[in-house]
Design brief:
506 residues; four-stranded antiparallel beta sheet; binds CU-O-CU linkage
């Protein structure tokens, strides 16, 4: 099923579930009552796995569930955009002493946001939730729901976010940002006609990410805290490392660093990341049941619509309906992420074999750094593998390349990193459809906590493909790192060093 490109919308899914789409779509409906939704969802699922306990506890039955819609389908005067502009303006008008002011809201991100670990998704969901509440409060429009920017279908930053007169263009505000060097204006490294690169956001790439079944490889790896100072330190996995980080670095300016929420597009970018998490759950994938994830509280990070401290636990972020919203692409209640949760062991606990190599060579733009990890024998069966399209698992085994001990680049915007395996002819122009290509990732912002950045890259598929082509990795897996500038960009201070590569068989 293809879901990322949006060709199977909410209406289509309702229809295929035997429901009349007009039931939901009819009235340009912004909100539905929870009662209506519950009725819709139990009709769709007819499965006993649905658990509404948290929903009931969190809200009265009549509390509206708002629908977050895609910005791509909106006219410039869409009520959602009108309200959003009003909120952005009102937040800029607040004094810095008010924690709801535009600058203070961005500061929350700089001070608290977790990156490169499994708190990334729930933290940003809570961040958006409280921000949306503040938008409703300050705009006076209580039906407001944040729009999302689906870069897969609309790879350019939407036109309404451009122009000196646009309240959604960061150049209009020229907010101070000492995280970003050089400081703007212009506050973006791109123009209105630039498209986010396909290798980060195309439908096949996003479908591959949504097809992931392992929670940590979807949502990033287990860490001891949002900004860990003791192991485990986590690791950036596919959703965060590829579309999330690359889109940040593609836009650049504010978006290239941790004061990125100063750019009004930030909130729509994260809304889309959040939507993909909902989509992933809706496909029947459960979040981890690990209490170290569920019971973590973001204690001092957020403020509510009145500016009062608002602590929230990870488990309270799992179901968007409990937070009062769903997406127009997904009837979120089809699959409750906390239902049918199998007891899961963190990836690290299931490691069968681990091989490692260290490195001290600096990675420079357009130059490959190959780090060769010796292995005793092929890690995946080299015999003919069934060509059923399910190359993701081979005899149930997965192989990951973990890039750790990284000395990060001074600046993270404007470039990305292609990762190849055992490619004898690798050059800066080797395309991403080469059989040796594994993925593309990017760095984002500074890493907080003491673990430093790390990437967890799935190489199951590339190893399987090379086996099929008669080029099996028999005695070594060379992980090749190829940093490249984004089209039209000339980034500087991009040097970094990947100190260690581990090849992990799970
Ligand atoms: Cu905490 Cu996309 O950023």
């Amino acid at each position: 099923m293809r879901i990322a490109s949006g060709d199977h919308g909410f209406a289509t899914r309702l229809a295929s579930a035997g429901l009349d789409p007009r039931f939901i779509k009819g009235v340009g409906l912004q909100t539905m009552t929870r009662r209506t939704l519950l009725a819709a969802s139990s009709a769709i699922t007819a499965a006993p796995m649905v658990n509404f306990g948290l929903v009931r506890r969190a809200h009265a039955q009549s509390e509206p569930v708002r629908i977050r819609r895609g910005v791509g389908a909106m006219q410039p005067d869409d009520p959602v955009l009108v309200t959003y502009r009003r909120a952005v303006e009102a937040m800029h008008a607040l004094p810095p002493s008010d924690p709801r002011s535009w600058q203070r809201q961005a500061q929350i991100h700089l001070d608290h946001c977790p990156h490169g670990n499994w708190f990334f998704l729930p933290w940003h969901r809570a961040y958006l939730f409280y921000f949306e509440e503040i938008c409703r409060q300050l705009s006076g429009n209580d039906t407001f729901a944040l729009p999302y920017w689906n870069w897969t279908s609309d790879p350019q930053v939407p036109a309404v976010f451009w122009g000196e007169d646009s309240l959604l263009d960061p150049d209009h505000w020229n907010d101070p940002d000492n995280e970003t060097l050089p400081s703007g204006p212009p506050w973006r490294g791109i123009g209105p006609n630039d498209s986010a690169p396909a290798f980060a956001i195309s439908a096949p790439v996003i479908d591959g990410i949504i097809g992931e079944t392992e929670f940590e490889q979807f949502a990033s790896l287990k860490a001891s805290a949002p900004r860990p100072t003791s192991p485990p330190f986590g690791g950036t996995a596919s959703l965060e490392g590829t579309p999330h980080n690359i889109v940040h670095g593609f836009i650049g300016g504010h978006m290239g660093a941790f004061l990125s929420p100063l750019d009004p597009i930030f909130w729509l970018h994260h809304c889309n990341i959040d939507r993909l998490w909902v989509e992933w759950n809706a496909l029947g994938n459960a979040n981890t049941g690990d209490p170290e994830w569920l019971d973590l509280e973001f204690a001092r990070d957020f403020v509510d619509r009145n500016g009062s401290p608002a602590p929230i636990m990870v488990r309270a972020t799992e179901e968007t309906t409990a937070l009062g919203y769903i997406y127009d692409t997904t009837p979120a209640l089809v699959a409750q992420p906390s239902a049918a949760r199998a007891p899961t062991t963190a990836l690290a606990g299931r490691t069968e074999q681990r091989f490692a190599a260290t490195n001290d060579r600096v990675s420079l733009l357009a130059r490959p750094t190959g780090i060769s990890v010796p292995i005793p024998e092929p890690l995946l069966p080299t015999a003919a593998v069934a060509l059923d399209g399910r190359t993701r698992t081979t005899a149930g085994r997965r192989v990951f390349a973990r890039l750790t001990d990284i000395a990060p680049p001074a600046r993270t915007a404007g470039f990305y990193v292609n990762v190849f395996i055992n490619c004898p002819y690798l050059s800066a122009t080797t395309p991403t459809n080469d059989p040796h290509y594994a993925t593309s990732v990017a760095f984002f912002g500074h890493q907080h906590g003491s673990g430093g950045p790390a990437f967890n890259i799935d190489i199951t598929e590339v190893l399987t493909r090379l086996n099929r082509l008669g080029r099996p990795a028999t005695d070594r897996i060379e992980v090749q790192i190829m940093p490249l500038p984004l089209p039209g960009r000339e980034p500087s201070d991009t040097e970094f060093t990947v100190g260690k590569v581990e090849v992990v068989l799970v």
